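Inputs:
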Amino acid sequence: QLQLQESGPGLVQPSETLSLTCTVSGGSIRSSSYYWGWIRQPPGKGLEWIGTIYDGGSTYYNPSLKSRVIISVHTSKNQFSLKLSSVTAADTAVYFCARHLEYGRKAASGYWGQGTLVAVSS
Amino acid sequence: EIVLTQSPGTLSLSPGDRATLSCRASQSVSSTYLAWYQQKPGQAPRLLIYGASRRAPGIPDRFSGSGSGTDFTLTISRLEPEDFAVYYCQQYGSSPQTFGQGTKVEIK
């Protein structure tokens, strides 16, 4: 059964870079033909799509975050990662990694990690 | 960017009741690219419906989705105790993919 698990610091200083990793088990990222992505949720608020990556390296980002986001795949470790630079308190959120249910860029997210809370504070 | 507006904000119902949740888009969404998720406190969202009306694997048939264009509906035919949660719609056909603000289904 496919499982995803986020990991990374729970506290990041303002203006620094937030770095998270999603480790995939029960399936391989390599040549999987699926898209993998990140979604976040500020405390008590709704969901915001951050971006999506394909094993081939194609990335798609939310324009509102594009200048600060990098999503990468690390197939040898069966992981993908998120880097968000120049963070502020507005970036405090639970960050989820996810995989599309079906092949293709335009697909719903059918598999999710449990989420990890990242607070931006000095 | 397509804005999704969900209504009502909160739905107060009893177990066994029928729940009807609405999602309205600011511009037309291909029904191929409309999904519904359920989220309980402290948990990740769970995909219920994709392609506007297709149930995700393992989802009970009391959940159904319908709609087209700018108006979509999630119906829960008979609420079970485990169905009280927050529900989000999502469009993923136009970038950026966007979510509605959520509808909370609470016990009356």
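Chain B touches chain A through 26 residues (CB under 8 Å). Flag for discussion at group meeting.
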